[in-house]
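Researcher: I'm preparing a figure for a lab meeting and need a structural model of a single chain. I don't have an experimental structure, so a prediction will have to do for now. The sequence is pasted below. Please return the structure as tokens so I can convert it later.
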Amino acid sequence: MVKQNSFLALVQNQKRLRCEKFLEEMDRVIPWDKFFNEIAPYYVEAETGRKKMELSMMLKIYFLQQWYSLSDREAEEMIYDRNSFQKFLGIDLLSQKAPDETTILNFRHLLEANKLQERFLRIVNAVLEKRGLLMKEGTIVDATIIAAPSSTKNKEQKRDPEMSSTKKGNQWYFGMKAHIGVDAKSGVVHSLETTPAKTSDRIPFKKLLHGKEKALFGDKGYFKIDDKREARASGILWAISDRATVKRALSSSQQKRNRKHSSVRSKVEHPFQVIKCQWGHVKVRYKGLFKNTMQLFALFSLVNLFRVRKTLLSTA
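Model: Understood. Here is the structure written out token by token.
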């Protein structure tokens, strides 16, 4: 006769899952009160109609969507399906209902309408700067392509007009670009700009700088001789990779210099790696640049906290 474990025994002996550990850590490092204070003036009860869900629950659901690349419908379903989500939200499904997909959608629209995701990045970076984790001395710049649907099998029978195509290597991509400025010491993202994919990396370059740089790092796509002279005249270390031309190849000293700065420049790849490889944000979720830009502000806010969470937890 096979002996069956009780439900309580199964729960007590359950292995602690990686996702539970991740959610517990993020719950502890996110400056919830500062976020709530920013959203609260816009999240007010209507005089008539249904009572609003708790602000804390709605914001946590929004962050779950970023970490697990969930649509509004998938978020609603996963709350009922995953015990780790229920723990993170502090919800008891025996006595209360989870927000439906329309409520989740409306909350996201509220954040977008007031550009609150953009404020999230400022809030996070102010916290990190106060803790000495954002030095603002040197900046690394880079961009990544985020794909968009290229099919014309839709209601308008055309591709998103705010996206565009570009060629990288021997392959064509359709979508948008996320351009970021990253702190050279900590790897924290301090600025974000978005453009259609065909836009040159150089166009939003200066918008990615905070103005107090002592050093500038980037790949050869950002090289311009006038900028190099201007930086050096201002006493700024110009660590943008030198670029060969048709008439002139790089000298051995230029090649050595490029290699020397490559280890610093590599830090800018880490935020992209987190949102794409760990959190699955490899394609745009919405039409147009604005909504996708707001989502990227939220994503990079969370990336900054995620990347320094060990330090924040150890010094809490």
